[in-house]
Amino acid sequence: MGYRRIRDELDRHHKVDVNDKRILRICRKEHIQSTIKWKPKSCTKSSNDPAYIAKNYLNRDFHADAPNEKWLTDVTEFKYYIGIEVHKVYLSAILDLYDRRIVSYVIGDHNDNPLVMNTFDTAVALEPDARPLFHSDRGFQYTGRAFCLKLKKHHMKQSMSRVAHCIDNGPMEGFWGILKREKYYGRRFTAKEDLITAIEEYIHYYNTGRIQRNLHLMTPAEYHDHYYSAA
Description:
The chain has 231 residues and is an alpha/beta fold. It folds into 2 domains: 1-34, no CATH class; 70-230, Ribonuclease H-like superfamily/Ribonuclease H (Nucleotidyltransferase, domain 5), CATH 3.30.420. Helices cover 39% and strands 17% of the residues. It has 8 helices and 5 strands; from the N terminus they run H-H-E-E-E-H-E-H-H-E-H-H-H. Helix 1 packs across helix 2 (20-29). The longest helix has 17 residues, at 192-208. The mean pLDDT is 89.
């Protein structure tokens, strides 16, 4: 946890009024540091035989005026170890740009079409009236005919990042970084169940317990509810 988050936590949960600079001085004196940020190693490569490529309608406009106006999605991998053998699980998630909440997610053993389809179906079940601009990279799951037809069925406009431009999906990549820095990096998981539990617990905490400065010191769930209570 960095000095800004420490200050925000003190303000929100302990009613301690102190500025960033003072917290930074204390952290330096006590050698308190946040987890090191890791840069993404690579961007997802474009599908070799895409059935459909959408324009980048999002165009890095990461602002939304209401929930379910713009959704981002992606898949990332996590490793666990059984002896010297390396195994993987994959996390597919959909993020709402208005409140930065994770709308839905699915964890699976394979990075395949069912993983992405199930994530989308879960989001639609939770938000049946949503008609967002739906943005992704050009991975094979998102460029396939079946997924494109699914978006059209639910009256969603598809948008895609340009090839090798991770920043086009920046907030989604940012969430992966937050999750991995705070729950994954620096740990060695030796059981699949423990890894999955850690991911699920963190996403719940992120949505309902992790305050964000750009959400006026509210959690994504609080910011989401505040929109409707203020309407």
